[in-house]
Every structure is written in C-alpha cells, then in structure tokens.
Specification:
Elements: E1 2-5, E2 10-14, E3 29-31, E4 59-68, E5 77-82, E6 89-93, E7 96-101, E8 108-111, E9 121-130, E10 146-151, E11 154-155, E12 161-168, E13 172-183, E14 189-198, E15 204-214, E16 220-229, E17 234-235, E18 238-239, E19 242-250, E20 253-262, E21 267-270, E22 274-277, E23 280-281, E24 284-289, H1 302-314, E25 319-322, H2 329-338, E26 341-345, H3 363-378, E27 384-391, H4 399-415, E28 420-425, H5 432-439, H6 447-454, H7 456-462, H8 465-476, E29 481-484, H9 490-496, E30 502-507, H10 512-521, E31 525-530, E32 546-547, H11 580-588, E33 596-600, E34 609-610, E35 619-620, E36 631-638, E37 643-648, E38 651-657, E39 665-672, E40 676-683, E41 686-694, E42 701-706, E43 716-724, E44 734-743, E45 745-750, E46 769-774, E47 783-784, E48 800-801, E49 804-808, E50 814-819
Parallel strand pairs: 24-25, 24-31, 25-26, 26-27, 27-28, 28-29, 29-30, 30-31, 46-48
Antiparallel strand pairs: 1-10, 2-3, 2-4, 4-9, 5-8, 5-10, 6-7, 6-9, 11-13, 12-13, 13-16, 14-15, 14-19, 17-18, 19-20, 21-22, 22-23, 32-34, 33-35, 33-36, 36-39, 37-38, 37-40, 40-41, 42-43, 43-47, 43-49, 44-46, 44-50, 45-49
Helix pairs in contact: 1-2, 3-4, 4-8
Length: about 850
C-alpha cells in the first residue's frame, strides 16, 4: 500500500452556486493543507455567528486540486483518506459527487476506483460549509490531514489492524491482534498474514503468522494471540509503546502491510478503589480542551498537537477531555507518547439542537456511523481510557433521552468493550424548564449566563430530587457518571447510588481547591476536568474580568462583546503561556512546593470588576509596572503552607496567613516600588520554598528565541519575540508593534494571548506587521512556528498579533524582527517558545 500526504497543490475559494458570479478578488487562492478557511476572514460585531465563534463569519468553500492518474492504477484500488473536513463535506471527481460526510469531526475514506480514468488528469474538489452550527469556533474546510492511498485490490484496509491486551500479569502479557483483509476482485484468494511485535526499544519480542482466505466483497479477519514476556506496561508515568507490523503476502511476496503502535495496560474502576491503571490508583488531574490551535485556527498540525499535550502535562495535567468532539489522531498519538489519559467525546448534541444549524436533525440517521468513526480512530490508543457519549445533552432528563443514552452506550460497548463509557451530564441543562421555574422566569436564551447567575441555586438544583430522578436512567447506563458543575452531588450520591463512580467532567476553574479535596477524599470520585486547560477561540470572553467603571459599560453576561476573540478561561493561553491560575492549580494538586507570586495590576487598583464563574483574577507574575513608586497594589502568594512572608529588597513587607482570603493563598495590600520582591512560604515555622520577581531596568532589546534548534521539512517551528532587559526581564503594561520578516519559509500564524483584539492571525497579509500586547513579564511574546509551506488565507485579511508561526522548507530558518520606526520599546513581553506570543488579557487602551 502506498499512503502519502496529499497536502500540496490545492486552491480554495468561496463556493458559488450555478447562478452566482464571483466577487472581485474572490477567486481561488493557493493553499497547503491542513487549512482553515475561516481564520482570516474579517471579523465583525454584526457576524451572525456572534460570540460563539469569536465574531467570525461562516461560509461555503470549495477546495480543488488535480490528480494525475497513471495507467498503472487501472488494476489498483485508489482512495482518499480525510481525517476531518468541517463541515457537510462533499467530495467530487470531475464534478461528480462521490462522497458526503455531514460530521465535521469524523475521519472518512472515499473510494475513487469507479470515477478514475487511467492516463488522465482529473479534478478533485471538496466542498465544506460552516454556518451557525457550533457553540465555539469550529473553523471550516479541510482542516485535518488528507492522504492518497493506492493499494493492491486485495489489501489491509485503513485502520484494519486492532490490538488488545486482555490478560496481563507481572511476568507476561497476552496481545490479541486482529487484522482485516478485503478483496475487491472477482475471485477468492488465499494469502498469508504475518505479525511482528517490537518493544519500545525496537527489539522483536514476538512473531506469528496464519493463512487467510478472502472472498470477493466479504472482508476476512485473521487473528493472532501472542504472549509477550516481561512486558513494559504503559502508564502515565512511563508511557511504553509497542509496535505490531502486519504483513500480507501472496506466494511469499508481500503485497501489503500495516503498522500499529499500542500500549500494554489494564484499566479498572470501582467505587471503593477508584480508577486504577495496571493496579495502581490514578487520580485524573484533567483539563478540557477544544480542537483549535489558536493562531493556526482550526488547522491540525502534528507538531502543534504534540506541543499542546507536552505543555499541558508540564503544567500538571495527566488527563485531557476532548470537548465536545472526537480528538484528532495527532493529539491522540501525542497523548500516547507523553502519558496523558484521554476522555474522548462523541458530540455536543443528540436530537435537540443548541444552535440553528447544528447536527441534531441528522443525528438519528447517522449516529451509528459517528460512533464507529470515533471508536475506529481510538481503539489502539492506550491513552484513551474513557469514551464520553455526549456533553450537556438537552434531552438527557427525559425518557426519550434515557433511551438514547442506553442506545449509544451499548453501541460503543459493542464496538469496543475494553474501555469505560461516560457522559458529561449537566442536571441544570437537562432540566431547563425546572430551572426557569426556579429562576422565576422564562428559560434563559444563554444557558452559560443562566448558570453564572444562579450561583448557589445551581448547586441546590443539581442536588435536588427532581434532577436525581430525571437523570437516573441516563446515568445508570454508564460505567462512570460524568458531572458538569455538579459537585453538590458527590457526597449524596455515595449514599443514594452506592455503586456509582463519578468524574467531574467539567468544573469551574477557580473551584479547584474544593474540587480536588473531594477527589482526594471520596474514592468513588476519580478526577476533575477544569474548563479549560488551554484557552480557545470562540465563546469569547466567558472568563474575562470587566472594569465596570468604564463609561458606557453594559453587562453582557458571559458573552464578551466584540472584539473579544478568545474565551479567556484557560490555564494556558492560546500561545501556550501559563497564566497565574495554572501555578495555583499546580500547588493545589500538590505538585509544586515553592510559592508563586501573582500581582494584581496596580494601574487598576481599587476599580470595581465584574467576573463570571469561569474567570480568574486579573493578575500576572510581574514586578515591572509603569506606575509611580508608592502606588497601591495587591499581591497574592499561592502556597501550600501556613504563612507567607513578603520581602522587598530583603526588607520585610509583612506576613500573611495562607487560606484567609482563599485556600492556598496569602494576600498582601502594599505599595509598588521597583526592586526585588520575594515570597517566603513557611510551614510550622520552617521555610518550604520561595519565589522571586524583579523589576526590569537598563536598556531594552528585542529578542527572538526559537523553541527548538531545527524543524522537520513538514514541521512547525515556534519562535517567541519579546522586548526585555539584559537580565531577561520584560516590562509590563504597554502595546508595541513589531515587524516580522520570515526568510526561507512562510508565516503560518502570528498572535498573542490577548483575548480582546481586532488583529488577525494571518500576519503576512499585512506585511508581517503585528501589534504585540505586552501584558506580563513572564508571558511569551510573539512566537513563530514554521513548516514546509504556509497555509494562505482565503480571502486576504488585515494584520495580526504578536506570535508568529512560520512554516519552513529546511531544518532551520531565520526570522528577522524589528520594532517599527518611531516606536519606543519601553514595554514588551518576555520570550518563550509558544505558537503565539502572549498577552492573555485585553490591553484596554480605553483605560
């Protein structure tokens, strides 16, 4: 089998109807896949997709390429493999429809045989559309990889090898391998399958072979049951990966092969001992993540997915929940490599819609296909321990919803009985009519705002008998019950439903001290997944901090008004920079002994604010501020200690108890003076750690730091751009512009972590000029990522922000970055390797 990426030679343009004429400048634009057709379209406050997608518009797009069909393919099987096209993909050959895939997250395979003309050049086109069909930024187009597959008519189909490890002990493991073979000829064939298993070091540890007879049009499955002695078990702390190679031979000559990586591990769960991997208890330190890659839009690149997983694990997470759609193959592979457990989620809707044109109307017809696509993608990945069959399903609390719960759960088990089945249940969302009565008014048009306004009433409602009764059947079909924002049920369910195992499938970020205490105390609660681990595009401003004394301020609930772009609720911003809450969470998890300093911006001291349950303090780890010495400032020290002493240039400022203002936090009201600020944490009078912040001083310089020394031809390089002093300290609180020129490659994306911005991520469309918001001295600035070629925008758009993602053709590239003439460099962000530079908060020039 020949399987190669089909990423070059494509164009994209708005899809026109038969009676429509193209607008000026709207013709086909060359692009390299994966590509997001929406990322660079102009955003507007009038976008009919609104806050859900970060005020991006929708659209209908047509991708096209040509395929030279050699005469030798006359006796071959030819396919196109799409890992994901958003959405309602239609694939055509020379204008004839050959496939339709409604689900924007499903991988699918298109058989081309009956449409190809050997010796000819043929046009392949793919239509995709996105319009008011998502509650978050979905992007659009061929946003995941595409492969061309050419195989013998008798071959192993894509995804045809499945590996399970049903029997494991300390001395050996039984590896069960099943490989399918298909025959598209008119005659039966008898061939031979051979399997070779290699260990994490590449050594062959087991082999097997067997004959297989394949009838035309009837797939055959050959199986082997192999013992592996002294297995290296896969575990989050030691993610050992084995590999099996299946070889299909005819009369001794190999005609096809397949290779699969897998892990040997055992998953168990019960209410008394919780979750165990290979017999060892594991508490899920979880993060929910969306599928977009920030400055890259929805485009899925292997390097970007790997980087997200690495940085999330480095921040203390050992589990990810794919919200609310199946995770990409690239991210699953990264989780396998880095030892991160996965809850992979099927969908956000079943039969009741949440947006005007979502997938609910067609779900009853295609749900089995969606389940099969998710399971086929996941079943060999040791990182995947749970399938979630839905998220906050509207009909879940009804008999009809319970029937669907059972139907979907059983289908998942039929396809993969080796993993846990869960569901993200929100008792409030499942009982909106009851909530309306509780709130004393009609159902809220924005459930997020409704939940935010409910406060403690939400906890009482989730724990009520009405909710208990309404969700009981839907919960009973699950192996583990996922609860969204329903920790009020954790204790009572231990008595009311003693066999129930619970996971906090979605929780408010600031509630982590209470959440984690429950996880550690209650054996039937196996973990917590915060909303969210990594910030994302769309649901804009749901975690923002508003200054309510601004002229004309109008409360807008959880919806951030234009030009809010990101949700602003991630532990890490879209550049991969850790916000202060990330260090707070790390301390709560017990993974950090040293304290961490978080300074509330002194220029906003005393101003009234409005927040949501998804907000965190507007604080940064910086002691460099453009305010007058003596200005009042609030300093928080996060610590797992009894008390924290604060020192400025070695002189005591004061000592504060930990836990008085909030758990794991000591708060100081003091004044700002430049110098060295030190937090010393003590338990029982003994120092357990300290954290130091210093003020910037002396001449400032522009610094460019690539995250890695080189980049593969098809890879991404991340480069951080900052303005800092000689000691590497970045001054804070100012906007600066930089001009970026990439030599030897092209810019794939440029951005900061700023949530409120009108800047585009397609920086090259504006002469690579970017507006960098420098809000945190320890926040990454403009970062560039590189790969073989850049995905171009369709259609062109204006400048972007301060993190650069560049795609290159050679291992190492040079990015020239210089401040624009006439700008001072007094304030900037400090460099770090991130796909986009950093400034998690809005720069608020109006203030």
């Amino acid at each position: 089998m020949i399987r190669r990426a089909l990423h070059d030679g494509w164009t994209v343009a708005p899809k026109l109807g038969a009676f429509e004429q193209p607008a000026d400048g709207a013709g086909p634009v060359p692009v390299v896949l994966p590509h997001d057709a929406i990322r660079d379209l102009p955003r507007s406050a009038d976008s009919d997709q609104g806050v859900n997608t970060g005020y991006h518009p929708g659209g209908v797009f047509e991708y096209a390429t040509t395929l030279d069909v050699p005469a030798a393919w006359r006796d071959r099987t030819v396919q196109l493999e799409f890992e994901g096209v958003y959405r309602d993909a239609i694939v055509l050959v020379d204008g004839d429809v050959v496939a339709h895939e409604p689900n924007g997250y499903n991988g699918f395979v298109v058989d081309l045989d009956s449409h190809l003309r050997p010796g000819a050049t043929q046009r392949i086109s793919v239509e995709a559309r996105a319009h008011r069909d998502s509650r978050w930024y979905s992007g659009a187009g061929i946003y995941r990889p595409v492969h061309l597959v050419v195989a013998d008519p008798v071959h192993i189909p894509l995804g045809g090898t499945t590996v399970t490890t049903p029997d494991i002990d300390g001395e050996r493991a039984i590896v069960e391998i099943a490989t399918a073979v298909v025959d598209s000829t008119r005659h039966a064939r008898t061939l031979r399958l051979a399997w070779q298993v290699t260990d994490p070091g590449g050594a062959v540890v087991a082999t097997a072979d067997a004959p297989v007879t394949v009838l035309p049009g009837e797939p055959a499955v050959a199986r082997a049951r192999i013992a592996v002695d002294g297995p290296a078990l896969w575990h989050p702390d030691s993610p050992s990966l084995y590999r099996v190679r299946a070889s299909l031979a005819d009369a001794g000559a190999e005609i096809d092969s397949d290779a699969v990586e897998f892990g040997i591990r055992r998953v168990q769960v019960d209410p008394a001992r919780g979750l165990r991997i290979n017999g060892e208890p594991v508490l899920l330190r979880g993060a929910c993540v969306h599928h977009d890659n920030g400055p890259l839009g929805a485009a899925t690149f292997d390097d970007a997915e790997d980087r997200r997983v690495r940085l999330l694990k480095a921040a203390g997470f050992n589990a990810l929940r794919s919200a609310h759609n199946p995770m990409s193959r690239a991210m699953l592979e990264a989780c396998d490599r880095h030892g991160v457990l996965v809850m992979d989620e099927l969908t956000d809707v079943w039969t009741r819609s949440k947006t005007a044109f979502d997938g609910a109307p067609t779900f009853p017809d295609r749900w089995r296909r969606d389940v099969a696509a998710m399971v086929a993608k996941d079943r060999n990945h040791p990182s995947v321990v749970m399938y979630s069959i839905g998220n906050e399903i509207l009909e879940l609390g009804t008999p009809h919803g319970a029937a669907w719960s059972r139907r979907i759960a059983e289908e998942v088990r039929a396809l993969d009985p080796t993993r846990i089945v869960t569901n993200g249940i929100n008792g409030v969302i499942a009982n909106l009519s009851l909530i309306a009565e509780e709130m004393g008014g009609p159902e809220a048009s924005d459930p997020n705002t409704m939940m935010a306004e409910m406060g403690e009433r939400m906890a009482r409602m989730n724990a009520s008998s009405q909710v208990s009764d309404s969700i009981e059947e839907s919960a009973s079909v699950l192996d583990v019950v996922g609860f969204n924002y329903a920790d009020s049920r954790y204790r009572q369910d231990a008595e009311q439903y003693p066999h129930r195992v619970i996971v906090g499938s979605e929780t408010f970020p600031a509630h982590i001290p209470a959440m984690w205490a429950l996880v550690e105390e209650l054996p039937h609660v196996i973990g917590d997944f915060t909303w969210t681990g990594w910030d994302y595009l769309g649901e804009s401003g749901i975690g923002r901090v508003d200054r309510t004394d601004v002229d004309g301020y109008v409360p807008t609930g959880t919806a951030g008004p234009f030009p809010y772009l990101t949700a602003e609720c991630g532990d890490l911003d879209i550049t991969g920079h850790r916000r202060t809450i990330s260090y707070y969470r790390e301390i709560v998890f017990g993974l950090r002994t040293a304290p961490y300093l978080a300074v509330h911006r002194p220029q906003h001291h005393g101003r009234p604010t409005a927040t949501t349950p998804w907000s965190w303090d507007d604080s940064v780890a910086s002691w460099s501020w453009d305010v007058s010495p003596g200005s009042p400032v609030v300093v928080d020290a996060y610590a797992d200690a009894d008390e924290v002493e604060l020192l400025l240039d070695g002189v005591a400022v004061g000592t504060a108890p930990v836990g008085e203002a909030a758990p794991f936090l000591a708060r100081f009201e003091t004044t700002w003076h430049p110098g060295e600020l030190t937090a010393v944490a003590r338990r029982d009078g003994v120092e357990v750690g300290r954290h130091v912040l210093r003020s910037a001083g002396g001449p400032l310089r522009l610094v460019v730091r690539p995250e890695t020394e080189g980049v593969a031809p098809d890879g991404l390089a991340y480069v951080a751009i900052t303005i800092e002093d000689a000691a590497g300290i970045v001054p804070c609180d100012a906007d600066r512009q930089v001009a970026v020129r990439v030599d030897g490659g092209e810019l794939a994306g440029l951005g900061t972590g700023r949530a409120r911005t009108e800047e585009s991520f397609g920086g090259r469309r504006s002469r690579r000029t970017t507006d960098a918001c420098s809000r945190s001295c320890d926040r990454p600035a403009p970062a560039t990522s590189a790969s073989r070629r850049p995905p171009r925008a369709c259609p062109p758009r204006r400048p972007t922000s301060a993190s650069t993602e560049q795609r290159s053709r050679r291992p190492q590239r040079r990015a020239d970055v210089s401040p624009r003439p006439g700008l001072t460099d007094r304030h900037a962000t400090r460099a770090r390797s991130t796909p986009s530079a950093t400034c998690p908060r809005a720069c608020e020039r109006r203030c």
